[in-house]
Amino acid sequence: MASTAKTHNVISFLQALKKASKDLQNNPISIRSRKDPKVAIEALLELATNADTILSSNPNLSDITQSLTNLKELLEDLERIQGYGLHSLVSYVITKKKISKTGYEMEAKLQSHIDRESAVDLVQILTKSKDENEKVEALARFDNRLAQGFDWDYQELILRGKIFTIIESILCGSTCSDRLNDQAARAVISLVKFNRVVFLGMVLMGSIIQSLISTASSINVRVLYSLIRCAKTHLIEELQYNREISRIINLLNSEDPSVAEAALLCLFEIAFYGSKEVIEAMVGEELVQKLMELQRRKQRTGFCKSRVENQEEVMTEEFAFEDCVWRFAVQIQVGEGLQKKEKHAFKLTILEIVRRASVFEDCQIDILWGSSP
Question: Its domain of life (predicted)?
């Protein structure tokens, strides 16, 4: 795509210009400083001269052209300052301060232009390109930009470009590859982290949750876990209303241990925030029995996340499904969704289920009294 290649050239130029403008900010504004900003300015001006065609042919970059003109004038002012008298030293410091300020302003302007060009490029690639690798790479760049933190102007570009809707259509479609689907799922959780208020609501109103559960790759289910952590009871109630919790429980039967482990994380999170009705539904779906079966297997699949009483997340190297019955019971006991009496009642219910199975004597003790160190 010729237009895409041209856009990439513009973006590459703007990024190089941004890096050069950042160098201007690394010059200490001090009388004692021997670091001369002339080199940085001249390098930046030379870069702009070499890409004069891009600047002159793009009216949207007129503010960058003006900033470069200002820098050129400041460089001339700097060259006119001579001697070591008080007036010269003060003028030198003031000029360097102006250069640094211009560098900051120029960097912000360049980032704005980069964001605009990148957003247009992303939409073009996702909607028109036939190359799935190109789409994956574009989404990865988008993911990296979102990771830089919230920005009002960038959010406006996302909303105006309907980027969320485009990503949702990819994620909920049935024709893309697993790799593209997983990258789209990553983009969704990155958008939610970018601005939870706006994009989490869009997730809950759409069909992304159902798609994540249906596709059921390890990445998709872990994205679902992250969404549950972000939305908490709001999403859990939706899952309960749409009877999706039973589908998550069924993922424990997946032949892929990483999918089953991710599903387990989702269920632990639901147990932590779930209401009485939610926990009853989970127990009614024979979740405890399924966890007991997983516990028997004791398949080592790597790291597993668990929540402790101070509600911080810790990473412990253990069997992915070891002690999962006890851990499920603990999530309920330390969770936020139940009253004290309800927690006690569910503890006894789980204990009775374990007793009826006539296995895991240690598990019974742990559920009743808590695990010993």
Answer: Eukaryota
Asked if 157 and 115 touch (Cβ cutoff 8 Å), the reply is: yes
Res 100: pLDDT = 80
Question: Which of 206, 257, 194 shows the shortest CA–CA distance to 230?
Answer: 194
How many angstroms separate the CA atoms of 182 and 178, rounded? 6
Domain 2-115 in CATH 1.10.3470: no
Helix, strand, coil content of the chain in percent (nearest 5): 75, 5, 20
Instruction: Tell me what pLDDT residue 361 has.
Output: 54
Distance of CA 363 to the CA centre of its chain: 37
Asked whether 29 and 96 are in contact (CB, 8 A), the reply is: yes
Q: CA–CA separation, 193 vs 152, rounded Å?
A: 14
| Rg, Å, the chain Cα set | 28
Give the C-alpha separation, 309 to 334, whole Å. Answer: 6
Residues 6+ apart with CB under 8 A from 69: none
In this prediction the pTM is: 0.81
How far apart CA 315 and CA 96 sit, in angstroms, is 49
Domain boundaries, given as residue ranges, for the chain: 2-115
Q: For the chain, how many helices (H) and strands (E)? A: 20, 2
Whether 113 contacts 14, CB under 8 Å: yes
The Cα–Cα gap between 301 and 156 comes to 42
| 106-140 pLDDT tens trace | 888 889 999 999 999 999 999 999 999 999 999 99
User: Hey, how many other C-beta atoms are within 10 angstroms of the C-beta on 103?
Assistant: 24
Residue 21 burial (CB count, 10 A): 27
